Amino acid sequence: MILVAGGGPAGTRLAIELACAGLRVTLVDPLLDPQRNAYSSAAIPLDDANKLQIPHACWSTTWQGWQLFDPDAIEHQWWSSDDLGVVLDFGNLRQSLWQQACSAGVELLSGWRVMLKRLHQQQADVVLLGPHGQQECRSVRWLIDATGSRRALLHQAGVPIDKEQDPLLCGYGVEWLIQASDRGSSRWRDRLSFFLGHQWVRHGYGWVFPMAKDQLKVGVCRLPPHDSAGGSAGLQQDLIQLLLRCGLSDCPVLDRHGGVIASTVRRTEPLGAGALIAVGDAASTANLLGGEGIRHALSSAFLLAELLTGQADDDSQHLLNEYQLALKRHLGFRWAISGRLARRTWWGLDSDQADRRMQRLISGLSRTASAHDLCDLLFHYRFERYGLRLIPYLI
Question: What is the pLDDT of residue 385?
Answer without folding.
Answer: 67
